[in-house]
């Protein structure tokens, strides 16, 4: 879903800082800082909305 914007951002930052680790840092930031907590929150929200309907 966010692959195309991330590719553009990664290419821009790699050219700006001339560092090949930028893509790796962006991946781990998105995956660890945003991805997993968001998955847990969405799962919890879904679980609570299902319990409320029952």
UniProtKB/TrEMBL annotation:
Pathway info: Lipid metabolism
Compartments, record wording: Endoplasmic reticulum membrane
Ranges annotated as spanning the membrane: 25-44
Assigned EC number: 2.3.1.20
GO MF terms, alphabetically ordered: diacylglycerol O-acyltransferase activity
Key words of the record: Acyltransferase, Endoplasmic reticulum, Membrane, Transferase, Transmembrane, Transmembrane helix
Name of the protein in its database record: diacylglycerol O-acyltransferase
Signal peptide: none
Any one cellular-component term (Gene Ontology): endoplasmic reticulum membrane
InterPro entries: Oat_ACAT_DAG_ARE
